[in-house]
Amino acid sequence: MDAEAARAGQETFDYVVVGAGSGGCVVAARLSGAGARVLLLEAGGPDEMREIHIPAAFPKLFRSPLDWNYETEPQEHLNGRRLYWPRGKMLGGSSSINAMIYIRGHRADYDGWAAQGNRGWSYEDVLPYFRRAEDFEDGANEYHGAGGPLHVENRRYTHEICDAITRGFEALGYPRNDDFNGPEQEGVGRYHVTQKGGARHSTATAYLRPALARGGPGHLEARTGALVTRVQIDDGRATGVTYRDEPGEHEVRASRGVVLAAGAITSPHLLMLSGVGERAMLEAAGVEVVHELPGVGQNLQDHLFVPVVYDTETASLKDALSETQMSLYLTEGRGMLCSNVGETGGFMRTDPALEAPDLQFHNGAALFVDHGFLELDGHHYTLLPSLIAPRSRGQIRLASADPGDRPLIEPNYLSDPRDMDVLVAGVELARRVGDTPALAPYRLTEVMPGEAVTDRAGLEAYIREQAMTIYHPVGTCKMGHDELAVVDDELRVRGLEGLWVADASVMPVIPRGNTNAPTIMIGEKAADLILGRPAPERQLVEATA
C-alpha cells in the first residue's frame, strides 16, 4: 500500500480486474502469474452449485440467482417480444452457465478484424493464443495446443439421434467434419467441448483456481459479491474502482491500471456510469462527462437461433436426471449428464458466393424451445439453425445514473432483412434434414413449426415468434480506429491511460460460431498487451478453402 493510499485507508493493487468471467479469469491469472498484485472483483457468487459442474444441467441455472437474468427492450422485428438473455453471475461468468461448445470462429473473422486496421489480430496472429490456452484431449498439432489451462475434449456422451442428424446432413451432400477448429470450418459433425473428465471446465476451474493456489512473486485475490459501480478516472488516467458489497462501499486503487472484463453488457455500462461515453446520453442520465467516447455501447451484435422440433418414441435427454443416469455420472463420469445438449451441428453457406459460413446448426436430443422452459409430454429432438454472420446492429444504453438500474439492451434483431433470409433458409434446411431416411427410425411428426406452416410468410411469422439468442452478445466496446471505436488494437480505452477492456465487447465483428473460446483468446492476448510482452511467433497455416 503506497503512502497516499494508506493515509486514505485505501487498498492498492497493481491491477484491478472487473469481472471473473471468460476474459477476466484469464487476464487476472496471467497478470498475477507474471508477478503483479491483482484484485479480481466479481458481482456474483462462488461457483459451488452442483448444476454448474454437471454439463447437461446448465439450463437449470437459467433464471437462478447465478444468472443476471437480463431482458432486451421490445424487439420490433420479433413481434415486440422482450428476449431473455441469460448471463453467468458467478465465478467463471458465462463459461459457468454456457453449453461448453468449443468453437474459435472462421479464419475470415480474424483476417477481417486485421483488415480494419487492427494490427496483431489476423488469424495467424491469434492462433498461437488459442493454442496457448488449450489442453486438447487428442494432443497438440498445428491447430491445437496441449498442456494449456483449458481442457478441450471429445464429449463422453453423444445421443444416437444427434449422430443420425449428422448422417441426414451428409445425405444432402454436406461433408463430415471432425474438427471445426482445424483447417476448415465447414461441414457437420460432433462438437468439442470445454469439459474435463465429463465435467464442465470453466475459466474459474481452468485459470482462476490454479492461480489462486499458486505461490511465487505475484498475488491474486478474488472477491465475490462485489458490484463495481465506477472506475475512478483522474486527469485522464484510471486509478482504481469503487465497488459495493454487503458491508458497504469501498474504493480500491490500481497503481498500474484497471481491466474491464465484465462482458458486452456490463463493460460498456460501467464505462458510461464512469462518465465515459456519448455526451448526450450521459448528460440525459445525469452522469458527468469525464471523457467523451461516442462508440461506448454501440455496435451490439448477437447470434439468433430458431427451433425445429420433432417428437419421437426414443428416450431423449429428458431421462438425463433419472436415477440410472445420475448413478452412471457420479460413479463413472459418463452417460447423459455429460451431454451439453447441443451435441452436434455444423457450418454452411446459404450462398456459395460467400467467403465463409453464415449458418450454423446446434442439434440436441431434447426439446429446446424458450431456452428449455417449454415442457411437453413425451420425447423430442430439436434442430436449431443459427444466424452467425448477422448484419443487424444494436446498442446498450444507459437507463440512469444509478448503478443498480440495469442498462437498456437494444439488439435490433432482424432490422436488416438479409438476416431473416438466412434464418428462413436455415429452417427450410432443417426440415429437409428432418425428412431424410437417417431420421426415419426416430421421427414421428414435426411439432414445430408444424406441417401447416408451408409458405415464406408462415416461416417468417414462426421465426418472429420463436427466435432466441444463442447467448453471444459482443461488440459494444469495439476495437478499431474509427469514430465508434472504444479501444485500440492494444485494447486500451481510447484517450485514457491505465484502462483496458478484455472481453467479448471488444470484438469489432462477431465471429462465426460460439464466442467463449474467442473471449478466452482475447484474455490471453490482453495480458501480453498490458504487460508489454512480445506476442508469440505468428503461426502460418494454409487455408484449405
TrEMBL record:
InterPro entries: FAD/NAD-bd_sf (IPR036188), GMC_OxRdtase (IPR012132), GMC_OxRdtase_N (IPR000172), GMC_OxRtase_C (IPR007867). PROSITE patterns: GMC_OXRED_1 (PS00623), GMC_OXRED_2 (PS00624), PROKAR_LIPOPROTEIN (PS51257). It comes from the Bacteria. Keywords: FAD, Flavoprotein. Residues 88-111, 263-277 form the Glucose-methanol-choline oxidoreductase N-terminal domain. Its cofactor is FAD. It holds the Pfam family GMC_oxred_C. The keyword Flavoprotein applies. FAD binds at residue 228. The keyword Repressor does not apply. GO terms for molecular function: flavin adenine dinucleotide binding; oxidoreductase activity, acting on CH-OH group of donors. Belongs to the GMC oxidoreductase family. This is GMC oxidoreductase.
